[in-house]
Amino acid sequence: MTDDGGLHVIFGTGPVGMSVMDELTERGRRVRMVNRSGRADVPERVEVVGGDASDPAFSREASAGASAVYFALNPPYDKWPELFPPLQAAVIEGAVAAGAKLVAVENLYMYGPTDGLPLTEDLPHAAETRKGGVRARMSQELMRAHESGRARVAIGRASDFFGPRVLASAAGEQVFGRAVEGKSARVAGDPDQPHTYTYVPDIGKGLVILGEREEALGRAWHLPSPETVTTREFVEIAFEEAGKPARIQAAPKIVLRAIGLFNPPLRETIEMLYEFEEPFVVDHSDFARTFGDHATPLRTAIGETVRWYRDRLSGMG
User: Fold this and answer.
1) Hey, is 272 helix, strand or coil?
2) Beta bridge pairs of residue 248
3) I need a surface site. Which of 58, 80, 135, 148 has the fewest CB within 10 A?
4) Among 197, 257, 269, which residue's Cα sits nearest to residue 232?
5) 157 has which bridge partners?
6) DSSP string, 34-90
7) How far apart are CA 269 and CA 274, in angstroms?
8) φ and ψ at 208, to 5 degrees?
9) Residue 72: CB atoms within 10 Å
């Protein structure tokens, strides 16, 4: 059964929210986007409203008339414990008031280290990090809202993402921006460990599928990702596509700690370094079996990302 009509409301105009918008507009859906400013670079037919999404009254107003609500907000990295749960709680209220499905995007922090075992959706939430704990509690809150009958919820989980519009990510500007300029890519942890990276347009498509399909409700799904390679191999492909000789600079933990003394968002990345110090391989076979595997091949995805960064660089010049 699919949901083909109605208004689709996206909370968040970052790379994930914009990729959801891309997918929905391609399918001819009506879209309203929600952010703090009320401004975003979107097609004319897409409505944008501004306000404080942590205010339940505003979120109810912004969600009015929706058949599906997408939660793709992400507060500053160093403000997660205080800002993230209230944002989600208010967006749940908006979806409940509208009688809409709620599709939330999550990362994989709630699992904690797996000693290199592949990440599957049935892993326990065993995170010992501050942000992993926040993620686990928020995910449990979403499932409680679904199981109690208050809301109809589906969760899509993605790994570190890359692609057009993605700047602040482990595979963002420090890799692609520097590759197109011929500078050394900066990565954290051990670049020779396998690491799954997710292409942001694939995230948008996956979330829209979850919003359309009734069988998606009531659980979390790992969204399709390209084939897993080591971070070094990933970076080498990016440089190949950029037509530059590959150069990579890996920052050890001691260096990150020193820089983090003066940079709170960077300091927050240090507790997540375990993801780059052991194999971090995401299994999306449940999604593929149920809905099909739409993962973009890795070289194609990296090539598209390099082209976006190159266009951005020429536009800045």
Assistant:
1) helix
2) 185
3) 148
4) 197
5) 106, 222
6) EESSS-----TTSEEEES-TTSHHHHHHHHTTEEEEEE-----GGGHHHHHHHHHHH
7) 10
8) -65, -40
9) 26
Per-residue pLDDT of the chain (317 residues; tens, 9 = 90+): 344 569 999 999 999 999 999 999 999 999 999 999 999 999 999 999 999 999 999 999 999 999 999 999 999 988 999 999 999 999 999 999 999 999 999 999 999 999 999 999 999 999 999 999 999 999 999 999 999 999 999 999 999 999 999 999 999 999 999 999 999 999 989 999 999 999 999 999 999 999 999 999 999 999 999 999 999 999 999 999 999 999 999 876 666 666 656 667 666 778 899 999 999 999 999 999 999 999 999 999 999 999 999 999 888 75
Q: What is the pTM of this model?
A: 0.95
Token reading at 92: 């749940």
For 23, phi and psi rounded to 5 degrees? -65, -40
* Homologous superfamily, domain 7-164+198-225+281-295: NAD(P)-binding Rossmann-like Domain (3.40.50.720)
* SS3 state at 195: strand
Between the alpha carbon of residue 292 and those of residues 90, 171, 204, 210, 285, the distances in Å are 32, 25, 15, 12, 9
